[in-house]
Write a structure and sequence with these properties.
Number of strands: 2
Order of helices and strands: HHHEEHHHHH
Radius of gyration: 21 Å
GO molecular function: DNA-binding transcription factor activity
Strand order of the largest sheet: 1-2
Largest sheet: 2 strands, antiparallel
Structural class: mainly alpha
Pfam families: Rrf2
GO cellular component, one term: cytosol
Protein name: Rrf2 family transcriptional regulator
């Protein structure tokens, strides 16, 4: 299982928006330049975040994006789901029903697939863990693990 790099860029950029005053926004150009990636790519990511209600766009020359929700109310899972969509990671194809015994009519297939149940359970545990981590948590964690100067310079860049 692998998430696209869009999830990583989204989480990084959303942290940068936390300290932006509520009446201001950050332009996609500044966010893309800071990350060293194309505006087009980041615009697509932010379009998905906007559609999910995580960010809101501010039109105009000084426009850009700002958080539409409190950082406490945006989980990692919210971001993953916004960027990646809603499809399950494991998609059971019921291959058990094609097994020799079922094809020959010796046995009837059970109504569930044990492998699918295990995979769905594991996926739910991962989602629960990602739901427990919010942008607020990430911001606090970055304050703890990164040098103070890096955090200050990042905030200055976007102010």
């Amino acid at each position: 299982m692998q998430y696209s790099v869009g999830v990583e860029y989204a989480l990084h950029c959303l942290v940068y928006l936390i300290d932006v005053p509520s009446k201001e926004s950050v332009g996609i150009k500044d966010l893309a330049e800071f990350q060293g990636l194309s505006e087009t790519f980041l615009s697509k990511v932010f379009g998905k975040l906007s559609k999910a209600g995580i960010v809101s766009s501010v039109p105009g020359v000084k426009g850009g994006y700002k958080l539409a929700k409190s950082p406490e109310d945006v989980s990692f899972w919210d971001v993953v789901e916004a960027v990646e969509g809603h499809k399950p990671i494991f998609q059971c194809k019921n291959i058990k029903d094609n097994g020799y015994l079922y094809r020959e009519g010796c046995c009837s297939a059970p109504s569930f697939c044990t492998i699918n149940l295990v995979m769905l359970s594991a996926e739910e545990k991962m989602r629960d863990d990602l739901r427990s981590k919010t942008l607020s948590w990430l911001n606090e964690e970055l304050n703890r693990v990164l040098p103070k100067q890096i955090r200050e310079e990042t905030r200055k860049y976007f102010s």
